[in-house]
Structure formats: structure tokens, C-alpha cells
Design a protein that fits this description.
Number of strands: 2
Distance between the termini: 48 Å
Radius of gyration: 21 Å
Shape: globular
Structural class: mainly alpha
Number of helices: 13
Length: 284
């Protein structure tokens, strides 16, 4: 089962009883775990061939197919594993073990730093955890794991420095940096979350002012978004940071700025829980 085929199955669980849904979710999780473990074990037994060795092309295809299947199995498992971990009660015996499992699967697919596979894995994981962070569904202790696993890589940090020099940059893994900022926020590290958000907004604002046009679309979370749309979202997250940090006036001002920027209905629906949290925190 690939990660693209999971969503319809998960949605159908909503229509059945909680007890049955829990059983179905547990069964699905075990199936995905088994599929990943099988794919991981097969890949572990196949050595990467050396260029120029006998039968190199055939061996490379076998090795590449095994690595692809391991990655696809991990990508299918991670969202379901995260959901399971999120709903475990604080005193559950599974909690620590599941957290270690999430980290182990992530490390497996991330591979070596400074590789495309590593960047792809970080980006995928950022997209998987973003809804949990935006909807405030994690304790500070659980969010701390996501702080570690969404740490921006060297390429992101290099673009941060370029932006500090006033130069536009490519939209490299902005989703990762945004998820990292939200993870820091949910882990209780408000100042660090604010600094990360500032770095992200700096790059985006420079692009809009000196580089790419606001309506140029970039790849983002398996879709297309304009940079103006992303600016609106990151300003919303900044408003959330200020609301959690109890700077209510600044949070309200930022939220007003956000709502004055036009956005597609589909995106605004995704952001509703974040808006409600800001309004709730700044209501008094």
C-alpha cells in the first residue's frame, strides 16, 4: 500500500464506530509496519554495486528498486504512525517506543546528509507533521521530537545567510523551515520559533521585493502556491507565535494583515484551526 492509497481508507473510518475504527487503525498500522520491515530487510541484503563491476547495470536496477520500495513503504507508514503516536495517552507504555520507532524510520529514509534523498525525506516528514503542529495536537514533550527531525539542512541555512545580505534566494525547503518554527513553538521555545519564522519571512519578502513576482508559483506540499500565498501563511504562523507568547496586540495586528490578503478558499479552510487558536488566545 502506498502513501497515496492510505487517505481514502482513513477517511472511510470516520463513518464507523470509535471501537471499530480503533481496531481498523491498529490493523492498518501493523500491516504498514510489516510492509516496511520486509522492504527494509530486503534492501539491507542488497549491496550498492560498484560502477564498472560485472553486471553493473542489472545490479544497479535491483538495488535501486529495493531502495525505492523501502522508501515508499516508509512514506506509507510514517503518517499513520504519527497519527497513532499523537493519540496515545501520556501514560501509555507505547509512547516512548513509538517515538523511537518514528525516529528510526525517519533516519532510515533520510540517509546521508547533503544528499537529494536526505532533502526529500526532510521535506516529506515536514509535510507529514505540519497538520499536527498547526492544529496544536501535541504536548511539548512530543513536539520536542519534531524539533529534532525538522532541523533545516545546510542548504536552507546558506540561503538564510544570503538573504541577510539582501539577496533573493530559491524557495528551498521552506516547508521544512516553517514546520521547524512551529515545532519550536509547540515545544515551548517561543523565541527560537520567532527567529526561525523571521528568517523564513526575510527570504520570502526579499523575493517579492527584489526577485520573483508575487504570483509566480512554487512547488509546495504536493501542490502549487504563489509566494504571496506563502507569505500570508507564514504571517499567520507569526501571529500564532505572538499569540502563544501573549503579545496579544501584535498577534491581532498580524491576523488583520493576514485576512487582508486574498487567498483561495481551499487554503483558508486548511488554516481555520490556526485562526481559531489565535482568536481564542487574544480574545480577552
Amino acid at each position: 500500500m502506498t502513501h497515496r492509497s492510505i487517505l481514502p481508507f482513513v477517511l472511510c473510518l470516520v463513518a464507523i464506530s470509535p471501537a471499530t475504527r480503533a481496531e481498523e487503525q491498529a490493523h492498518m498500522l501493523e500491516q504498514l509496519r510489516h510492509g516496511y520491515e520486509q522492504a527494509r530487510d530486503v534492501a539491507a541484503k542488497i549491496e550498492q554495486p560498484t560502477r564498472g563491476s560485472d553486471g553493473f547495470r542489472d545490479k544497479l536496477k535491483v538495488w535501486s528498486d529495493a531502495i525505492r520500495k523501502r522508501r515508499e513503504a516508509a512514506y506509507a507508514l510514517i503518517p499513520v504512525l504519527l497519527e497513532h503516536w499523537t493519540i496515545l495517552p501520556d501514560g501509555s507504555d507505547e509512547l516512548a517506543a513509538t517515538g523511537k520507532e518514528i525516529k528510526a524510520v525517519y533516519i532510515d529514509i533520510a540517509g546521508k546528509p547533503l544528499t537529494q534523498a536526505n532533502s526529500d525525506a526532510r521535506s516529506f516528514f515536514a509535510d507529514a507533521v505540519w497538520p499536527l503542529l498547526a492544529d496544536n495536537r501535541l504536548t511539548q514533550e512530543r513536539a520536542a521530537l519534531f524539533v529534532e527531525l525538522t532541523e533545516p539542512h545546510l542548504g536552507v541555512r546558506l540561503n538564510d545567510k544570503i538573504a541577510q545580505l539582501g539577496k533573493p534566494t530559491e524557495p528551498l525547503d521552506w516547508n521544512l523551515q516553517d514546520a521547524h518554527s512551529l515545532a519550536l513553538l509547540r515545544a515551548g521555545r517561543i523565541d527560537d520559533a520567532r527567529r526561525e519564522n523571521e528568517l523564513l519571512l526575510k527570504k520570502l519578502t526579499l523575493n517579492l521585493e527584489r526577485g520573483l513576482l508575487p504570483n509566480v508559483e512554487v512547488n509546495y506540499r504536493n501542490g502549487k502556491r504563489t509566494q504571496q500565498s506563502l507569505r500570508r501563511e507564514y504571517l499567520l504562523h507569526r501571529a500564532l507565535i505572538e499569540a502563544v507568547g501573549e503579545d496579544k496586540d501584535k498577534a491581532r495586528k498580524l491576523l488583520t494583515e493576514v485576512t487582508d490578503i486574498e487567498e483561495a478558499e481551499e487554503i483558508t479552510k486548511q488554516q481555520e484551526s490556526c485562526v481559531r487558536e489565535i482568536e481564542s488566545r487574544t480574545s480577552s
